[in-house]
Protein backbone atom coordinates (compact mmCIF):
# COMPACT_ATOMS: atom_id res chain seq x y z
CA UNK A 1 0.00 0.00 0.00
CA UNK A 2 1.31 3.43 -0.86
CA UNK A 3 1.43 5.61 2.25
CA UNK A 4 2.60 9.04 1.07
CA UNK A 5 3.16 10.43 4.58
CA UNK A 6 5.96 7.89 5.12
CA UNK A 7 7.75 8.70 1.88
CA UNK A 8 10.15 11.35 3.20
CA UNK A 9 11.40 9.15 6.05
CA UNK A 10 11.70 6.19 3.69
CA UNK A 11 13.73 8.17 1.14
CA UNK A 12 16.05 9.43 3.86
CA UNK A 13 16.62 5.91 5.22
CA UNK A 14 17.29 4.54 1.72
CA UNK A 15 19.87 7.25 0.98
CA UNK A 16 21.68 6.53 4.23
CA UNK A 17 21.58 2.80 3.56
CA UNK A 18 23.11 3.33 0.12
CA UNK A 19 25.81 5.56 1.62
CA UNK A 20 26.49 2.96 4.33
CA UNK A 21 25.44 5.45 6.99
CA UNK A 22 22.49 3.58 8.41
CA UNK A 23 22.63 2.97 12.17
CA UNK A 24 22.72 -0.74 13.09
CA UNK A 25 19.77 -0.31 15.45
CA UNK A 26 16.73 1.64 14.26
CA UNK A 27 13.84 2.27 16.62
CA UNK A 28 10.66 3.62 15.07
CA UNK A 29 8.77 5.66 17.65
CA UNK A 30 5.43 5.47 15.91
CA UNK A 31 2.06 7.13 16.39
CA UNK A 32 -0.61 4.45 16.62
CA UNK A 33 -2.03 3.61 13.21
CA UNK A 34 0.60 5.56 11.24
CA UNK A 35 1.64 2.47 9.27
CA UNK A 36 5.11 1.99 10.72
CA UNK A 37 4.93 -1.73 9.90
CA UNK A 38 4.92 -0.83 6.18
CA UNK A 39 8.02 1.28 6.70
CA UNK A 40 9.85 -1.44 8.61
CA UNK A 41 9.06 -4.03 5.92
CA UNK A 42 10.22 -1.89 3.01
CA UNK A 43 13.39 -0.90 4.87
CA UNK A 44 14.18 -4.56 5.66
CA UNK A 45 13.64 -5.41 1.99
CA UNK A 46 16.00 -2.63 0.91
CA UNK A 47 18.69 -3.69 3.42
CA UNK A 48 18.91 -7.19 1.96
CA UNK A 49 18.28 -6.09 -1.67
CA UNK A 50 21.30 -6.39 -3.97
CA UNK A 51 20.77 -2.79 -5.14
CA UNK A 52 19.88 -1.57 -1.62
CA UNK A 53 16.61 -0.03 -2.80
CA UNK A 54 14.01 -2.85 -2.58
CA UNK A 55 14.28 -3.14 -6.38
CA UNK A 56 11.87 -6.06 -6.67
CA UNK A 57 14.06 -7.62 -9.40
CA UNK A 58 16.92 -9.34 -7.59
CA UNK A 59 17.09 -12.76 -5.99
CA UNK A 60 17.00 -11.25 -2.50
CA UNK A 61 13.85 -9.28 -3.24
CA UNK A 62 12.19 -12.41 -4.66
CA UNK A 63 13.06 -14.41 -1.54
CA UNK A 64 11.81 -11.54 0.59
CA UNK A 65 8.44 -11.46 -1.15
CA UNK A 66 8.18 -15.26 -0.83
CA UNK A 67 8.88 -14.78 2.90
CA UNK A 68 11.71 -17.28 2.68
CA UNK A 69 14.77 -15.02 2.88
CA UNK A 70 17.29 -16.83 5.12
CA UNK A 71 18.91 -13.61 6.35
CA UNK A 72 15.78 -12.09 7.82
CA UNK A 73 14.70 -12.84 11.37
CA UNK A 74 11.19 -11.66 12.12
CA UNK A 75 10.17 -11.88 15.75
CA UNK A 76 6.43 -12.43 15.82
CA UNK A 77 4.22 -13.28 18.74
CA UNK A 78 0.48 -13.80 19.06
CA UNK A 79 0.85 -13.51 22.81
CA UNK A 80 0.72 -10.20 24.69
CA UNK A 81 4.42 -10.47 25.53
CA UNK A 82 7.67 -11.41 23.77
CA UNK A 83 9.82 -13.67 25.94
CA UNK A 84 13.55 -14.05 26.45
CA UNK A 85 13.78 -17.28 24.39
CA UNK A 86 12.69 -15.46 21.24
CA UNK A 87 15.26 -12.73 21.85
CA UNK A 88 18.05 -15.26 22.56
CA UNK A 89 17.35 -16.68 19.08
CA UNK A 90 17.90 -13.16 17.76
CA UNK A 91 21.31 -13.10 19.47
CA UNK A 92 22.27 -16.38 17.75
CA UNK A 93 21.05 -15.09 14.41
CA UNK A 94 23.05 -11.85 14.71
CA UNK A 95 26.37 -13.69 15.23
CA UNK A 96 25.69 -16.24 12.46
CA UNK A 97 27.07 -15.87 8.93
CA UNK A 98 24.81 -14.38 6.25
CA UNK A 99 23.59 -17.18 4.00
CA UNK A 100 23.44 -15.00 0.90
CA UNK A 101 26.67 -13.24 1.88
CA UNK A 102 24.91 -9.89 2.15
CA UNK A 103 23.21 -7.99 4.96
CA UNK A 104 21.07 -9.57 7.64
CA UNK A 105 18.01 -8.00 9.25
CA UNK A 106 16.15 -8.54 12.51
CA UNK A 107 12.61 -7.16 12.75
CA UNK A 108 10.94 -6.81 16.13
CA UNK A 109 7.65 -4.88 16.05
CA UNK A 110 5.91 -3.59 19.20
CA UNK A 111 8.93 -3.90 21.47
CA UNK A 112 6.95 -2.57 24.43
CA UNK A 113 5.78 -6.20 24.63
CA UNK A 114 9.26 -7.44 25.56
CA UNK A 115 9.50 -8.87 29.07
CA UNK A 116 12.21 -7.45 31.31
CA UNK A 117 14.58 -10.35 30.69
CA UNK A 118 13.87 -10.19 26.95
CA UNK A 119 14.70 -6.45 27.00
CA UNK A 120 17.99 -7.13 28.76
CA UNK A 121 18.85 -9.85 26.29
CA UNK A 122 18.11 -7.50 23.38
CA UNK A 123 20.25 -4.85 25.00
CA UNK A 124 23.25 -7.19 24.95
CA UNK A 125 22.71 -7.85 21.26
CA UNK A 126 22.48 -4.11 20.54
CA UNK A 127 25.67 -3.49 22.49
CA UNK A 128 27.66 -5.82 20.25
CA UNK A 129 26.76 -4.72 16.74
CA UNK A 130 27.67 -6.90 13.81
CA UNK A 131 28.78 -4.91 10.78
CA UNK A 132 26.32 -6.40 8.28
CA UNK A 133 23.34 -6.86 10.60
CA UNK A 134 20.59 -4.32 11.16
CA UNK A 135 18.06 -4.50 13.96
CA UNK A 136 14.75 -2.79 13.18
CA UNK A 137 12.47 -2.13 16.12
CA UNK A 138 9.17 -0.34 16.46
CA UNK A 139 6.83 0.76 19.20
CA UNK A 140 3.75 2.89 19.65
CA UNK A 141 4.42 3.09 23.41
CA UNK A 142 7.92 4.49 23.76
CA UNK A 143 7.49 5.09 27.50
CA UNK A 144 7.58 1.33 28.10
CA UNK A 145 10.86 0.80 26.29
CA UNK A 146 14.01 0.53 28.42
CA UNK A 147 15.99 3.81 28.28
CA UNK A 148 19.16 1.78 27.63
CA UNK A 149 17.57 0.24 24.53
CA UNK A 150 16.52 3.67 23.32
CA UNK A 151 20.02 5.01 23.79
CA UNK A 152 21.56 2.15 21.76
CA UNK A 153 19.36 2.84 18.75
CA UNK A 154 18.68 5.68 16.44
CA UNK A 155 15.19 6.79 17.33
CA UNK A 156 13.01 7.94 14.45
CA UNK A 157 9.62 9.54 15.08
CA UNK A 158 6.90 8.43 12.67
CA UNK A 159 3.84 10.67 12.91
CA UNK A 160 0.32 10.53 11.59
CA UNK A 161 -0.43 12.61 8.50
CA UNK A 162 -2.25 15.93 8.82
CA UNK A 163 -6.06 15.79 8.73
CA UNK A 164 -6.33 17.16 5.16
CA UNK A 165 -3.74 14.70 3.90
CA UNK A 166 -5.50 11.80 5.64
CA UNK A 167 -8.91 12.74 4.22
CA UNK A 168 -7.51 13.21 0.71
CA UNK A 169 -5.80 9.80 0.88
CA UNK A 170 -8.95 8.12 2.23
CA UNK A 171 -11.05 9.61 -0.55
CA UNK A 172 -8.84 7.83 -3.07
CA UNK A 173 -9.18 4.53 -1.22
CA UNK A 174 -12.92 4.30 -0.57
CA UNK A 175 -16.26 5.31 -2.09
CA UNK A 176 -17.72 5.79 1.38
CA UNK A 177 -18.10 9.22 2.93
CA UNK A 178 -15.16 10.26 5.05
CA UNK A 179 -14.95 13.21 7.43
CA UNK A 180 -12.88 14.61 10.26
CA UNK A 181 -15.30 13.35 12.92
CA UNK A 182 -14.83 9.81 11.64
CA UNK A 183 -11.07 10.28 11.53
CA UNK A 184 -11.10 11.56 15.14
CA UNK A 185 -12.89 8.38 16.24
CA UNK A 186 -9.78 6.51 15.09
CA UNK A 187 -7.33 8.89 16.80
CA UNK A 188 -6.55 10.56 13.48
CA UNK A 189 -5.28 7.37 11.84
CA UNK A 190 -6.36 7.07 8.19
CA UNK A 191 -5.35 3.38 8.20
CA UNK A 192 -7.51 2.45 11.20
CA UNK A 193 -10.38 4.49 9.78
CA UNK A 194 -10.05 2.78 6.41
CA UNK A 195 -9.99 -0.63 8.11
CA UNK A 196 -13.25 0.20 9.85
CA UNK A 197 -14.83 1.54 6.66
CA UNK A 198 -13.96 -1.59 4.70
CA UNK A 199 -14.72 -4.15 7.40
CA UNK A 200 -18.01 -6.04 7.15
CA UNK A 201 -19.57 -4.75 10.32
CA UNK A 202 -19.55 -1.20 11.49
CA UNK A 203 -17.84 -1.64 14.82
CA UNK A 204 -18.40 1.90 16.00
CA UNK A 205 -22.15 1.54 15.46
CA UNK A 206 -22.17 -1.74 17.41
CA UNK A 207 -20.14 -0.18 20.20
CA UNK A 208 -22.44 2.84 20.43
CA UNK A 209 -25.42 0.48 20.73
CA UNK A 210 -23.72 -1.48 23.51
CA UNK A 211 -22.72 1.72 25.29
CA UNK A 212 -26.39 2.77 25.39
CA UNK A 213 -27.26 -0.62 26.87
CA UNK A 214 -24.53 -0.17 29.47
CA UNK A 215 -25.74 3.31 30.38
CA UNK A 216 -29.32 2.01 30.73
CA UNK A 217 -27.99 -0.78 32.97
CA UNK A 218 -29.19 -3.45 30.53
CA UNK A 219 -25.60 -4.67 30.07
CA UNK A 220 -23.12 -5.26 32.90
CA UNK A 221 -19.62 -3.73 32.79
CA UNK A 222 -18.16 -7.26 32.88
CA UNK A 223 -20.23 -8.51 29.89
CA UNK A 224 -19.39 -5.38 27.94
CA UNK A 225 -15.67 -5.87 28.79
CA UNK A 226 -15.69 -9.49 27.62
CA UNK A 227 -17.39 -8.50 24.39
CA UNK A 228 -14.92 -5.74 23.49
CA UNK A 229 -11.65 -7.10 24.89
CA UNK A 230 -10.17 -7.72 21.45
CA UNK A 231 -10.57 -4.07 20.40
CA UNK A 232 -8.97 -2.64 23.51
CA UNK A 233 -7.14 0.39 22.20
CA UNK A 234 -10.00 1.47 19.90
CA UNK A 235 -12.49 1.14 22.76
CA UNK A 236 -10.48 3.50 24.95
CA UNK A 237 -10.46 6.04 22.13
CA UNK A 238 -14.20 5.72 21.55
CA UNK A 239 -15.03 5.86 25.24
CA UNK A 240 -12.82 8.95 25.49
CA UNK A 241 -14.71 10.58 22.60
CA UNK A 242 -18.03 9.71 24.23
CA UNK A 243 -16.94 11.16 27.60
CA UNK A 244 -15.67 14.32 25.89
CA UNK A 245 -19.03 14.85 24.18
CA UNK A 246 -20.92 14.09 27.41
CA UNK A 247 -18.75 16.63 29.20
CA UNK A 248 -19.59 19.34 26.67
CA UNK A 249 -23.30 18.52 26.85
CA UNK A 250 -23.29 18.47 30.67
CA UNK A 251 -21.52 21.80 30.78
CA UNK A 252 -24.22 23.41 28.60
CA UNK A 253 -27.25 21.59 30.03
CA UNK A 254 -27.11 20.85 33.79
CA UNK A 255 -23.59 21.88 34.69
CA UNK A 256 -23.54 19.48 37.65
CA UNK A 257 -20.08 19.62 39.18
CA UNK A 258 -20.51 16.09 40.43
CA UNK A 259 -21.15 14.66 36.95
CA UNK A 260 -18.40 16.80 35.42
CA UNK A 261 -15.92 15.43 37.97
CA UNK A 262 -17.02 11.90 37.16
CA UNK A 263 -16.56 12.49 33.46
CA UNK A 264 -13.14 14.01 34.04
CA UNK A 265 -12.14 10.87 35.90
CA UNK A 266 -13.38 8.75 33.00
CA UNK A 267 -11.35 10.85 30.54
CA UNK A 268 -8.21 10.40 32.67
CA UNK A 269 -8.92 6.71 33.02
CA UNK A 270 -9.26 6.30 29.22
CA UNK A 271 -5.87 7.94 28.63
CA UNK A 272 -4.23 5.89 31.37
CA UNK A 273 -5.78 2.60 30.15
CA UNK A 274 -4.88 3.37 26.55
CA UNK A 275 -1.22 3.67 27.36
CA UNK A 276 -1.36 0.60 29.62
CA UNK A 277 -3.18 -1.54 27.05
CA UNK A 278 -0.07 -2.38 25.04
CA UNK A 279 2.04 -3.27 28.04
CA UNK A 280 2.99 -6.88 28.63
CA UNK A 281 1.04 -8.85 31.23
CA UNK A 282 -1.92 -6.47 31.52
CA UNK A 283 -5.31 -7.95 32.47
CA UNK A 284 -7.34 -6.49 29.62
CA UNK A 285 -10.71 -7.70 30.89
CA UNK A 286 -10.17 -6.11 34.29
CA UNK A 287 -8.97 -2.84 32.79
CA UNK A 288 -12.06 -2.60 30.59
CA UNK A 289 -14.62 -3.67 33.19
CA UNK A 290 -13.26 -1.11 35.68
CA UNK A 291 -13.61 1.60 33.06
CA UNK A 292 -17.14 0.52 32.07
CA UNK A 293 -18.06 0.42 35.73
CA UNK A 294 -17.08 4.09 36.03
CA UNK A 295 -19.05 4.87 32.86
CA UNK A 296 -22.18 3.12 34.16
CA UNK A 297 -21.96 4.88 37.54
CA UNK A 298 -20.97 8.29 36.21
CA UNK A 299 -23.91 9.97 38.00
CA UNK A 300 -23.70 8.00 41.23
CA UNK A 301 -20.01 8.23 42.06
ZN1 LIG B 1 16.34 -6.09 -4.92
Short description:
With 301 residues, this protein is α/β, with parallel strands linked by helices. It contains 14 helices and five strands.
Written description of the protein model:
With 301 residues, this protein is of the alpha/beta class. The chain has two domains: 4-158, P-loop containing nucleotide triphosphate hydrolases (Rossmann fold), CATH 3.40.50; 200-296. The protein has helices at 7-18, 36-48, 59-65, 84-95, 116-127, 147-152, 163-173, 180-185, 190-198, 203-215, 221-228, 232-252, 257-276, 284-296; strands at 25-30, 72-74, 104-108, 133-139, 154-158. Residues 49-51, 55, 57-58, 60-61 line the site of zinc ion.
Task: Summarize the topology.
Layout: H1 7-18, E1 25-30, H2 36-48, H3 59-65, E2 72-74, H4 84-95, E3 104-108, H5 116-127, E4 133-139, H6 147-152, E5 154-158, H7 163-173, H8 180-185, H9 190-198, H10 203-215, H11 221-228, H12 232-252, H13 257-276, H14 284-296
Parallel strand pairs: 1-4, 1-5, 2-3, 3-4
Helix pairs in contact: 1-2, 4-5, 7-9, 11-14, 12-13, 13-14
Q: Strand-residue fraction?
A: 5-15%
CATH homologous superfamily grouping of the largest domain? P-loop containing nucleotide triphosphate hydrolases
Q: Which H/E pattern describes the elements?
A: HEHHEHEHEHEHHHHHHHH
CATH topology of the largest domain: Rossmann fold
What is the overall pLDDT average? 92
CATH class of the largest domain: Alpha Beta
* CA-CA gap between termini: 47 Å
Physical arrangement of strands within the biggest beta sheet: 2-3-4-1-5
| Total helical segments | 14
What oligomerization state is this entry in?
A: single chain
Number of beta strands: 5
- Which molecules are bound in this entry? zinc ion
For the record, the CATH architecture of the largest domain stands as 3-Layer(aba) Sandwich
Enzyme class: transferase
Organism: Glaciecola petra
Protein name: DNA-directed DNA polymerase
Catalytic activity: DNA(n) + a 2'-deoxyribonucleoside 5'-triphosphate = DNA(n+1) + diphosphate
Amino acid sequence: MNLPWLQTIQNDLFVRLQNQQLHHGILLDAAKGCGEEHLIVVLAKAIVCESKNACGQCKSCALFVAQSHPDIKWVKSDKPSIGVDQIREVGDFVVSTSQLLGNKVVIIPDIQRLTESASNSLLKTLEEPNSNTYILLSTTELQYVLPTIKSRCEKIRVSLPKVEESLAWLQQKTDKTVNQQGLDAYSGSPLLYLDALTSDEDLLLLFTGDLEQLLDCNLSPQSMATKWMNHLSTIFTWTYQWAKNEYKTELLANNSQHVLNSLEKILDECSRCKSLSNKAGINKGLLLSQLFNKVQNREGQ
